[in-house]
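This part of the workshop introduces the protein records we will be handling. To make this concrete, we reproduce a full record directly below.
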Amino acid sequence: MPKHKGTAEPHERPNYQPPYGTAPYKPPERYPTDSSLYSCTDLEADDAYRFLKASEVRRQVQAAPDKKQRLPPPPGSTSKRRNLSKYPETFKNLPERIDLQAPRPHKEYPLTADPGQNWVQRESATADKVRAIYSPHDRSKFDVVYHNRKISSDTAGDFSPAYYRPSRRPAEPERD
């Protein structure tokens, strides 16, 4: 299966030079599964978002709401006013820096590492570090990006693409 556009490993990129004083590039340890994965290579090895099952990401992208939702009032609140959720929102974090395969317009929605769950906006909740970038008109093509603190502490410019890693299962033999 060909790699998705923009998913070259750092050592495969043209003119890649590892930072001075660092060890040669070593691919991250693969999550112990035969499933296809998205790999957020610069997250810590024990981070729950380091490897996300591709089937779970596809499910969450399809389940993302079409528009912002009204939030329930905070517990104990007597106010009838209900704020809108932040997501989905237009992806504005330097999309030209990341080679996205999703067609425009780009929407972003947080992903969760919990299988079978979807990210839920709450009054005081902040989004987790991984986002799906998709077009509301075609969710079959999407990208996965994550906040990479190794690039920058500026939240507007610190997204890196997650790398798609195809299944290790052997292909089904072709039948006559």
The longest strand covers residues 138-147. The chain has a mean pLDDT of 78.
